[in-house]
């Protein structure tokens, strides 16, 4: 059994494509792509839920590992790409966080919600008024 496993491993390692596909140079970044995918998905959510500390930590982490991905031999461009996408996504999230909490975005969002609430209440009041007129008119 050990000889069969050793032979299979030698067969896999003899082809440069399967050797790469079965290495940590591929599976490390492939499994790490969940972080930038989540960051991109979060860009459409309300900025109130963004954690400034976590965004800062992930920006720093991705910036550090972009450098690491190019420093190893051989350079791991898949890992670099993963962290470059995450770094960019976290910068956008950081901008959204700062804009919402520090540059007046929250006040604008609250004013917009208040205007929407007033117009919704007016619409409901008109509907109720119409129903009352219909009931009284009968």
Automatic annotation (TrEMBL):
GO biological process: pyruvate import into mitochondria
Pfam (any one): MPC
Bilayer disposition of the protein: Multi-pass membrane protein
InterPro entries reported in the protein's UniProt record: MPC (IPR005336)
Coiled-coil region(s): none
Keywords annotated in UniProt: Membrane, Mitochondrion, Mitochondrion inner membrane, Transmembrane, Transmembrane helix, Transport
Function according to Swiss-Prot or TrEMBL: Mediates the uptake of pyruvate into mitochondria.
Family note: Belongs to the mitochondrial pyruvate carrier (MPC) (TC 2.A.105) family.
Protein name: Mitochondrial pyruvate carrier
Organism encoding this protein: Ampelomyces quisqualis
Source taxonomy: Eukaryota, Fungi, Dikarya, Ascomycota, Pezizomycotina
């Amino acid at each position: 059994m050990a000889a069969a496993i050793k032979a299979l491993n030698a067969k896999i390692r003899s082809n440069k494509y399967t050797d790469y596909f079965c290495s940590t140079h591929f599976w490390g970044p492939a499994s790490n792509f969940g972080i930038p995918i989540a960051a991109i998905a979060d860009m459409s959510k309300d900025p109130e839920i963004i954690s400034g500390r976590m965004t800062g930590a992930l920006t720093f982490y991705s910036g550090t590992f972009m450098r690491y991905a190019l420093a190893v031999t051989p350079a791991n461009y898949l890992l670099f790409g993963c962290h470059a996408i995450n770094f960019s996504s976290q910068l956008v999230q950081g901008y959204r966080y700062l804009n919402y909490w520090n540059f007046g975005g929250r006040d604008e969002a609250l004013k917009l919600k208040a205007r929407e609430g007033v117009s919704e209440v007016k619409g409901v009041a008109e509907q109720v008024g119409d129903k009352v007129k219909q009931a009284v008119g009968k």
